[in-house]
Write a structure and sequence with these properties.
37% of the residues lie in helices and 24% in strands. It is built from nine helices and ten strands. It has helices at residues 11-14, 60-68, 110-120, 125-138, 154-166, 184-201, 212-218, 246-249, 252-270; strands spanning 19-29, 35-45, 49-53, 75-80, 83-85, 95-98, 172-176, 204-209, 221-226, 231-237. The strands form two sheets. The protein has a six-stranded mixed sheet, with helices on both faces. Belongs to the ABC transporter superfamily. This is ABC transporter ATP-binding protein.
Length: 271
Amino acid sequence: MDTAYLSTSPATATSGASPLVSVRRVSKQFANGTLAVRDVDLDLGAGEFISLLGPSGCGKSTLLRMIAGLANPSTGTIEWNGAASDGASGGRPDLGFVFQDPTLMPWANALSNVMLPLTLKHVPKREAAERAAEMLALVGLKGFEKSYPRELSGGMKMRVSIARALVMRPKILLMDEPFAALDEITRHRLNDDLLQLWWKERFTAVFVTHSVFESVYLSQRIVVMAARPGRVMADFAVDAPYPRDDLFRTSADYASLCRLASGRLKEAIGS
């Protein structure tokens, strides 16, 4: 996919806009007594790319699931454009969710997997197939519409998963360490393609990762979380223009930003 899609940071496109999502003093305690997340305050701006960075067990995925409505906060509220929700779906727009595993239906081909959200919304079959094929082409899988998951590589299966999450044109795409199990070359390629999709589709992206390098490469903002219980310890901007490519990965600016993120992460782990 062509990376020449943006010459400067898109931050100016969203500056001054009201947050798409506002998380207010949200905590989550499980039935066994574990306090997974405590008093999290976080604003997600429309069109932003934000990474939730932290070690395993710091509540990143739990927070993401609460934003998605897959889990309810024990206390606090999550507001969508001013519509407060304590776990009900009211006020929450269409969103896409990409899990760490592709979670594809093994008996269905790529096209049918991507069509699934449209089918559940009772979109006519012909229109659903056209939209699914268009999205597969957008993630670089034109020609693989009839391929089954067993015939696809790990990176290709993740592309199908991303296409399925985006086929409804959601305002927000939530991703829970989607590239963690992939080899470095494939991961870098998908990072590049994800950034191009983000700019083209203009969705808000929230990306969970424990990789400092990945968070710096992708994000406009990095939110660092600490564990036991999960809480926000730092929230800072990644002041680097787009597009980002291999030249950025080897630049002094990238190294400096990675040192900054790594330092904030160490502080959070030691807190």
